[in-house]
Amino acid sequence: MDYECDIGYSRPDGTTGPCLESETRLSDEQKKVALQELQLEQCDEFGYYEVSQGYRKVPGNICIGGVDLNPYRYQCTARGWLASWFTFRGIFMLGVIGAICYYGWPVFEAVLLLLPIPDPSDIKDKAKSYGNKAMEMVGAGKKNE
């Protein structure tokens, strides 16, 4: 198995069914308050918070692909989203994209010039002529009646 039940979730009566939220002595209002406090802590620390699907990956598991039961990740604010870009990885990716655009533009432009892209004015004229022919046919049909 790649996933096990997350903290606060369990399988009913030890079955192999889905992980369900465990019973607690907290009221619904207390659960909401605790969840909001946890989300605020995560927002302050990471800039995002996670919502569990009831599963967590088994430690040491290196499987790739398949069903993704990892927690959903939500950005807290635009600041958190921007902060995620100002990591080493984000800055590196922006640099790579910038270099590709700057140094690769002559190649990209040459490919665009070689592509057989039709002239838009030619397409516009053809569409007008087809429309005029259709109007003539419809108009000619009405005259015969």
TrEMBL record:
<protein>
    <recommendedName>
        <fullName>Sortilin C-terminal domain-containing protein</fullName>
    </recommendedName>
</protein>
<dbReference type="InterPro" id="IPR031777">
    <property type="entry name" value="Sortilin_C"/>
</dbReference>
<keyword id="KW-0472">Membrane</keyword>
<keyword id="KW-0812">Transmembrane</keyword>
<keyword id="KW-1133">Transmembrane helix</keyword>
<feature type="transmembrane region" description="Helical">
    <location>
        <begin position="82"/>
        <end position="105"/>
    </location>
</feature>
<dbReference type="Pfam" id="PF15901">
    <property type="entry name" value="Sortilin_C"/>
</dbReference>
<feature type="domain" description="Sortilin C-terminal">
    <location>
        <begin position="2"/>
        <end position="76"/>
    </location>
</feature>
